Amino acid sequence: MLSIKQQLAKRLFDIVVALIGITVFLLPIVCLIFMATVVMGEFGLFSQQRVGQHAKLFTMYKIKTMKSNTLDDANIIVDDSRIPWFGKLLRRTKLDELPQLFNVLIGNMSLVGPRPDIVGYADKLTGEDKIILSVKPGITGPATLKFRNEEDILKQQPNPKKYNDAVIWKEKVKINKDYIQNWSFLGDIKYIFKTFFP
Fold first, then answer.
1. Alpha carbons 122 and 54: distance in angstroms, whole number
2. Domain of 99?
3. How far apart are CA 1 and CA 191, in angstroms?
């Protein structure tokens, strides 16, 4: 678990980078939301309740990449045909994640950490696995990088939800526990770098 000094250093870094990022990307974010609205025929900013630090729920923001009713209850894509070319481009380039800079600035997310889950996963952790809830969820992180092609993996499974719960989720828990138990500032820098230069 991160010490108070480590948490403060991580938070300070988050604030500085989020402020710079919002300053640089505010206009592109607005433009992408507008374009998503036109392409989807729905408001282009997506918001959803996710499980945050200490299992508290918060609203996470993304640029909408798909039309409504495309996901099942576990947030797994069930109808790929409802994702237009623009949405696929945003997902491939990760530009849909840009609004989460506001989540970081607000303080319910961090730049690096476990990805924020929908209700039914992180909030159900028990025992030593609950250490994952001791930190703020991140835009990127070691588990996110390992499973950056998660959607492609799930599409190949006869039962995507079952495979996600039995294989991917368990591996993510293991990776995220190791991240927290061995956290370092340089490690966070490395994960941010790998996000842009895989």
1. 10
2. 4-196
3. 19
